[in-house]
Write a structure and sequence with these properties.
92 residues, alpha+beta, BH3618-like, 3-stranded antiparallel beta sheet, 17% helix
Length: 92
């Protein structure tokens, strides 16, 4: 799992009020957002699922995965490419 802001500065999650209520959150600002990381081919390919983040309520120990419909993000966003882009001084 990774904080998506570590690999994409402008990452945003928009969820329905019902979802926030299910996690007993007073607002989405109280949530912790993490994305699932997949490591394949002996670390040659490291990707993050930015379309299906996991939203956590750390106070209540509750979590749910959400699917961001019509998302501009990728299912297999290359973390390796982000690291290389950051080293070159550009955002990927």
């Amino acid at each position: 799992m990774i904080d998506p802001l570590q690999i994409m500065e402008n990452y945003e999650v928009s969820v329905a009020g019902e979802f926030i209520k299910d996690l007993n959150l007073s607002s989405i600002d109280k949530a912790v957002v993490l994305c699932i990381v997949n490591i394949a081919n002996e670390c040659a390919s490291v990707t993050a699922n930015l379309v299906g983040p996991v939203i956590l309520n750390p106070e209540k120990m509750l979590a749910r995965q959400v699917v961001l419909l019509n998302s501009p993000y990728g299912l297999k966003h290359s973390i390796s490419e982000n690291i290389q882009a950051a080293a070159a001084g550009e955002e990927k």
